[in-house]
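Sample pair:
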Amino acid sequence: MYNLRSFFISLLTLSLICSCQGNETVSPEKIKAQIAQAEKDFEKMAGEKGIAEAFACFADSNAVIKRQNDTLIKGKENIRNFYSYDFYKNASVKWSPDFIEASGNGDLGYTFGKYLWQSKDSSGKLRESAGIFHTVWKKQKDGSWKYVWD
């Protein structure tokens, strides 16, 4: 009888412990703030370490970017290679999200806003290209945010 009672007490204790784990509620505003910070850090790195390094660093291992003529570039290394062309070495990009949303469980989010590319042509004339960006972010196991779509 004692062993059966100990078993049920242990089972009840284990159930209570398990039911308390994984139920941490993270506020949507906190998640949005984390994504906003990832955007800022991403933009800052692009200015300081270069566009290729920033786009590779902030890419999830399965990231995809859509560029000219609906070309899809898949994976961190292909993204780094794409942004390693001379044009991007002499360019800068600035952006800021106008909107941030996060999933209910806090593991995905998306942003959209305006961007501005600046580069100099062969004669030294400044050229600008502005538009709208849309980025999908995924929370990583280490708690950082990486984009899966840009």
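Strands lie at 59-67, 71-74, 91-102, 108-120, 126-139, 145-149.
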